[in-house]
Amino acid sequence: MQAKRFLLTLMVSAALLGPALASPGHGSGEGHDDRAYGEPGNPKKPARIVQITMSDADGKMRFIPDRIAIKKGEQVKFVLRNGGEMDHEIVLATLDENLKHGEEMAKNPDMEHDDPNAKRLAPSKTGEIVWKFTKAGEFDFSCLIPGHRESGMTGTIVVK
Fold it and tell me: Is the alpha carbon torsion for 37, 43, 46, 47 positive or negative?
């Protein structure tokens, strides 16, 4: 009887937590190999360096640059710097995924990212994301901290 109760509890927990664990930008990174916008890069392999600054100067939140052109199959090392006065993050995804994830962040503003396509930085801090763009298309990068994307903190990656 105790084993059945444990199994039932496990099944209910999996059903309730499953969607949260599967959301883009969170979790262990498992099951994300088929992402439309590519895959985690290999930091031991060569990569083109693209510097992105996060800014909130003059009341305007933005990424500099906010449009990046990349070749299909190219591995990029994003060198990130938060030049603002508040925490910011960057999440690489499709526009639809980032919009949906932004809704989740609005409900849970203290949500932390633990995925190779996302990085949160405190003011004056730096970080890196290494990403390989395996498919052509237009993809999004946004700060999904509530209010930041809406204030202009978004950009586009064009992969050809």
Answer: positive
Does the pLDDT of residue 126 top 50, yes or no? yes
Task: Give the list of residues 6+ apart from residue 47 with CB closer than 8 angstroms, or none.
Answer: 41, 75, 76, 77, 130
In the predicted structure, residue 25 carries a pLDDT above the cut 60: no
Q: Which of 34-43, 64-73, 141-150 has the lowest mean pLDDT?
A: 34-43
Sheet order of strands, 154-159 included: 67-70, 154-159, 137-142, 88-93, 118-121
CA 101 – CA 115 distance, rounded (Å): 13
**Domain spans of the chain, in order of start:** 39-159
Residue environment code for 90-104, b if the CB has 16+ CB neighbours within 10 A, otherwise e: bbbbbeebbeebbeb
- SS3 category, 158: strand
d(CA 11, CA 15): 6
The residue type found at 99 is: L
CATH for the stretch 39-159: 2.60.40.420
Residue 7 scores a pLDDT above 90: no
